[in-house]
Amino acid sequence: VTLVAELRAALNNGEIAVHVQPKAGLADGTVTGAEALVRWEHPELGRVSPDEFIPVAERSGLIGPLTTRVLDLSLAAVAGWRSAGHDLGIAVNLSTRSLHDADLVDEVARLLRRHDVPADRLTLEVTEGSVMADPARAVALLHQLRDLGVRLSVDDFGTGYSSLSYLKRLPVQEVKIDRSFVTGLTEDGEDVAIVRTIVDLGRHLGLQVVAEGVEERSTWELLASMGCDLAQGWYLGRPMPIGELVPWLRTRE
Ligand code: G
Ligand code: G
Ligand code: NA
Ligand code: MN
Fold first, then answer.
1. Distance between CA atoms of 114 and 23, rounded to whole angstroms?
2. What is the mean pLDDT of the chain?
């Protein structure tokens, strides 16, 4: 039995779940939302990493149903948080193939309606690399998503090509500084220079800047002093099952 067959089965038997990792304002620690990270718990293989099965899904045509499932679980979570009194956003990762999927816009619109979630509570994260695979097509799709009112974010920023020209052309509201520049920030002057430059660039372009991979308090404080907007990482919180987020928020109150 191949991984493709296993993944197809997993989509039908509830083995696919979403964990969420919180994101907070660096200035005051207010939690503004979370990133959805897909999880696959296979009864025999154990946990299979998305780094392993996303490429399989992309090659086999299962990425459409998988993305729909992640969006559905994520927006259901947002609806649940809203009814518990927490107005939080969710960020969902899009893969390269999803940026070429003409059905995606209708799917996103349908799921926002189904869960009665305002469009701006959903952020879709794309990497520069996935945009560059077919820029004309990706840019057109991003504009359609933006027209729905969904927020768009450039993930792993700084690791791709054409960062600057594409930042200008993409209808994005946010950049996420790749964690390779962030995790060791306090020990590396070059990373400090890079992160400072991205933060300034974001400010001048009117983009929210998120630092990912914040593992230590000292990194948090340095990023806050640079004027970076938001942080995500183990220092704030690890990815957790959806049902754990509200109890986790209560422990912070
Ligand atoms: O959290 P984790 O280490 O398992 O994530 C590994 C990689 O998988 C990350 O690059 C992340 O962006 C990606 N990933 C996690 N969830 C999703 C998802 O729902 N869709 C896509 N396309 N990628 C995801
Ligand atoms: O590619 P993307 O940035 O979407 O992937 C996010 C990945 O980073 C996930 O695999 C997630 O589990 C991981 N991650 C989240 N916070 C931290 C952190 O503080 N340190 C490290 N090393 N990894 C993190
Ligand atoms: Na991401
Ligand atoms: Mn990222």
1. 25
2. 96
- For residues 198 and 213, what is the distance between their CA atoms, to the nearest angstrom? 15
CA distances from 233 to 12, 35, 37, 239 (A): 31, 10, 13, 9
* pTM of full prediction above 0.90: yes
Q: Exposed, middle or buried, 72 (CB in 10 Å: 0-12/13-18/19+)?
A: middle
For residue 125, give the ligand 1 atom closest to its CA.
12
In this prediction, what percent of the chain has a pLDDT beyond 90? 92
User: Which ligand sits closest to the CA of 94?
Assistant: 1
- Taking alpha carbons only, the member of 12, 142, 20 closest to residue 88 is 20
Task: List CB-based neighbours of ion ligand 4 within 5 Å.
Answer: 155, 176, 212
Predicted confidence (pLDDT) per residue in 233-247, tens digit: 999 999 999 999 999
* CATH at 162: 3.20.20.450
Residues paired with residue 35 on neighbouring β-strands, in sequence order: 21, 91
Domain count, the chain: 1
Query: If you measure from the C-alpha of residue 37 to the centroid of ligand 2, how many angstroms do you get, rounded to a whole number?
Result: 9
3-state secondary structure of 170: coil
Centroid of ligand 4 to alpha carbon of 213 (angstroms): 8
Atom of ligand 2 nearest to the CA of 155: 3
Question: Does residue 104 form part of some domain?
Answer: yes
Ligand 4: distance of its center to the CA of 35 in Å?
A: 9
pLDDT at 162 over 70: no
Domain that holds residue 235: 19-32+64-252
